[in-house]
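In response to reviewer comment 3 from the previous cycle, which asked for concrete evidence that the modeling workflow produces usable outputs, we include below a single protein chain processed end to end. The sequence was submitted unchanged, and the resulting structure tokens are shown without manual editing.
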Amino acid sequence: MSYAREMLDASPSPVTVDKSVLATVIDALSDCAQACVADIDDDLGEHNVTEMITCIRLCLNCADVCTAAAAVISRPAGYDASVTKPLLEACVAICKTCGDECERHAEMHAHCRVCGEACRRCEQACRELLRAL
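The workflow returned the following structure tokens.
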């Protein structure tokens, strides 16, 4: 069990969505942000760093969007659909774009493969939560 799920279970505030789905999204968002930050660092160490510029920029955006979304949805007591839904939609969009770019480099760079997988997992988790809202 992740800390996200433990915190949701421990919260005295009512949670209006399936806690398992919510915890899965929080974990996926955190994992994706971490994978993107690590991928940026690895991209910067590549000999062909100029070829990695798009990947680096997308990973920066993805990490920032996922971090913001994780923070907001970790506070379900203050749920506001007008904020939460666009954030999750932004996560779906950036995770798809970033995942596509990472997959372009996946055969050459294992770190891009792993980051792409994290982006895909996050994209799917966010889509699932959006369907549940």
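The chain has one domain: 3-10+17-132. We consider this sufficient to address the reviewer's concern, and the full set will be provided in the supplementary archive.
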